[in-house]
Amino acid sequence: MEDVLGTLAAGAALVLPQREVPTADELVAVLAGRQVSVVNLPTSYFLSVRDRLAEAWREARWSPRTVVLGGERLPVDALSEWVHPDTTLLNAYGVTETTVTSITHTITADDVTRGGEAPLGTAINGVDVHVLDEGMYPLPDGAIGEIAIGGGTLALGYLDNEQATKERFVTLPALGGARVYRTGDRGYRDLRGLLHFLGRQDNQIKLRGHRIELEEIEVAASAELGGRSCAVVLYDDPDTGPALTGFVGGGDPLDGSALHDALARRLPAVFLPARWIALDTLPSLVGGKPDRAALARLAADTPREESPRATGTEQVFTGPGQALLAEGWQEVLGHDRFTPASHFFQVGGHSLVAAQLAAWLEPRIGFRPPLRKLFQHPVLADQARVLTEGPA
What is the pLDDT of residue 392? Predict the structure, then answer.
C-alpha cells in the first residue's frame, strides 16, 4: 500500500507487473513499454536482474529517474554503473510496524568508493530514529545499539496480540515519554549522521526481502517430527547464495524430502530450508538455546549430497516430462548434478530460480506453472508428473 498510495497521491501512473516474479526480460519489457521512470524493487531481485536493466538503460530503451531498493543489505560494489547524475538511487529501510519506509539514503560515488554495504541513511520527514542501549537510553554517534523508530508513522500495535504490542511498542522516559517501536535490528550512526545496519538481536532474519522468524520454522519442524529438537540457520553458500539450512537432533534417520513436503503445507515457501541435516545432538549454548554460530559452521562444512549424475553415473530421465524438466533445471541452475529424485532446493534452487524455471517452462508447456506448485513438488520426477496434468 505504501507504493500504491504514494504513487497515486503524487498524481503518477501506477504500473504493476502481471507475473508473480517477472524474469529480467519481462521486467525490461514492462519498464520500457510503459516508460516507467520510478521503480521500487527488493534488493535481491534487483541484483539478479540488474545486468539486463543496465543493458536496457545503455540502449536508451528505458530511462530511470529514481530506483528504490530495500529489504536487505545492499553491497555497493554492485552499483557502480547505477550511480549517474540523471538517476537517483535510494537505499530504503523500514518495517511494517512503522508504515514501511522510515530511513533512506541516496547512493553516491563516494559510497561505491568506500565499498562494503550501503548505509541505511537518515530518517524521512515525520519519523524519529534512535539507537538505544540495553536500558533503553539513547546512544551517541558511533555507539552500537538497537534501532528504534518513532513519530507519526508508528502503528498502534498488533491486532489481538497485546503481549507482543507491549514488548515492541514502548514508551521511553529517556526520550521525554516518546513512544517507539523496537525493531530488533542492531546498528549505529557514523560521524556523518548516517545510520548503519549490523544485524539482528534476535532470531529473525531477512531473506530475499522477507522477514523470517527462525523459531517459527523450528517449532513447525519439531511438531512434524514428533518433538525432535530442530534448529535453522541462514548460510551464505558461495556457489548458490544465501539459503536456510535446517538441523534435526536425536540421531534417528531423517527423510528431508518428506519433512519439506510437510512444512510446505504449513509455511510460506520462503520459510522452507533448502536442506536438512541430521545430528546426534544439536550444539547448544549454556542456556540451552541452539548455538547458531556452530550450526552455521556445520552448514559450511557439510557438503551437499552428490547425485549419481555428479559422480559420473549416467542418469535416465523417464518420459518427455522428466527430460523437459531436466533441461529446464540445467538451464536455471547452471549444472546437471541432479537425478529424477533430486530436490530442487537441495541442488541450488531458491525462490528467484524457481521463478526463472516457471518462465522457462511457459513457452514449452503452454502455461506458466504457479510458483506454489513448484514449491509443493520440489522433486524433479514429481514436478514432471504434476505439470503434465496442466494448469491448476
Answer: 58
